Amino acid sequence: MKKLLLFVAIAVMTISNAQSQELRIGAKAGVNFASVGGDFTDNYDGRTSFHIGGLVEIPISEKFSIQPELLYSGQGAKSEYDNSFGDSLVIGKEKLKLDYINIPIMAKYYIIEGLSVEAGPQFGILVSAKNEYEESGFRGEISGEEDVKDFYNTLDIGFGLGTSYRLNNGVFFSGRYVIGLTDITDDDDVDFGPLDIDGYKQRNGVLQFSVGFSF
User: Fold this and answer.
1) pLDDT truncated to tens, each residue of the chain (215 aa)?
2) Domain regions of the chain by residue span
3) What are phi and psi of 75, to 5 degrees?
4) Where in this chain does the record put each Outer membrane protein beta-barrel domain (predicted)?
5) Half-sphere exposure at residue 60, Cβ-oriented, CA atoms within 13 angstroms
6) What are phi and psi for residue 11, nearest 5 degrees?
7) Alpha-carbon distance 8 to 119, whole Å?
8) Please, where are the H alpha helices in the chain?
9) Strand 155-166 and strand 24-38: pairing?
10) CA 198 to CA 162: how far, in whole Å?
11) Which of 75, 43, 38 shows the shortest CA–CA distance to 200?
């Protein structure tokens, strides 16, 4: 983890020193439509949340640039269920809230002035994992929130694809989809009793729409 972050920092600083006179610095924020896919996710729906952070666009040529970002991103999923226990029906809903500090490093290619397509890796650091629940049934109405961070890996790696359009005044609009490439669960800490969960895997996915400003 430390070596990865050090490599990213050195790469960004090296390119920045070579292109400092042409840098664009900016900020962005927007909506996340997040999901979790993989094992035991058949009843999962998406979680709607937000992202916010900053970016640096580093021109390499007239049409090509590199754009590292630092984003706070709310991700995860939600689900609803109903289970029968004898004559009783238990109805509940849960929201898995996985919050990350994400570092996307996008390679951008300008098709025409202002309009670009982008692709590149994203490295995420899990800062919070909560499971929020509500349930009604034979035990009455219960609700709460539990910390489940120990069940998830700290590092998440994904790959993003997107597009962006920047106006002459510096305002820009972008859309991006990031697909998870690594398992987000920590198998050693997940306990389902007698079930053998060897190979238990889940991955993040998030569709982002952003508005921002750069200068």
Assistant:
1) 555 555 555 555 555 454 455 899 999 999 999 999 998 888 899 999 999 999 999 999 999 999 999 999 999 999 987 776 556 677 889 999 999 999 999 999 999 999 999 999 999 999 999 999 998 866 678 889 999 999 999 999 999 999 999 999 999 999 999 999 999 998 665 554 444 445 679 999 999 999 999 99
2) 25-191+201-214
3) -130, -170
4) 18-185
5) 12
6) -65, -45
7) 16
8) 2-19
9) unpaired
10) 34
11) 38
CA distances 97 to 50, 69, 103, 126, Å, are 12, 22, 19, 11
How do beta strands 88-112 and 64-85 pair?
antiparallel
